Amino acid sequence: METIRLSRATHQLLERGVEALEKIGRELERYNDWQEQTDGTDS
């Protein structure tokens, strides 16, 4: 497998991007859980 060398800044940028996507995923899970709990109770 070929090794790709990235600059430190690029590596940090990618890490921050992955962390942001993980946070978005967690928030979407929380939102979906909340929606399941509230479905049918508002109307």
From TrEMBL:
It comes from the Archaea. This is Uncharacterized protein. It comes from Halobellus limi.
